[in-house]
Task: inverse folding
């Protein structure tokens, strides 16, 4: 698929792929510029928390770029789904809640499923 075809917004798959990728960017930003992000990794039990936070940020940077550009989409979508499932488990460990609007893991789970659909479609 050409680069121009990857940005055809009349293709619903491209819209889903871009949404999955673009929603990563605020999370990536927060890991480096929001001090409370480290507190989440500590509360979730990641040890050492700072290492896992920076590793998650590096993974998110690669995933955002590859999914936006449509490069290795099957692999990137699958890794994003797994990454978000880990995030969902972390959110559950911290909050114990399901509903996203009260701090639960629902959004991470939904986002992981969307990324998995992107990975399946690209295959």
Result:
């Amino acid at each position: 698929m050409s680069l121009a075809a990857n940005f055809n917004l009349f293709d619903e798959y491209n819209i889903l792929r871009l949404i999955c990728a673009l929603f990563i960017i605020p999370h990536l930003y927060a890991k480096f510029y929001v001090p409370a992000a480290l507190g989440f990794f500590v509360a979730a039990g990641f040890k050492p928390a700072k290492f896992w936070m920076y590793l998650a940020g590096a993974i998110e940077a690669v995933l955002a770029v590859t999914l936006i550009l449509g490069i290795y989409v099957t692999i990137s979508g699958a890794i994003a789904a797994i990454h978000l499932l880990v995030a969902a488990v972390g959110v559950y460990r911290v909050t114990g809640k399901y509903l996203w609007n009260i701090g639960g893991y629902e959004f991470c789970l939904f986002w992981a499923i969307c990324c998995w659909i992107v990975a399946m479609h690209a295959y």
User: Anything to note?
Assistant: The chain is about 75% helix and 0% strand. The radius of gyration is 15 Å. The longest helix spans residues 73-95. The mean pLDDT is 94.
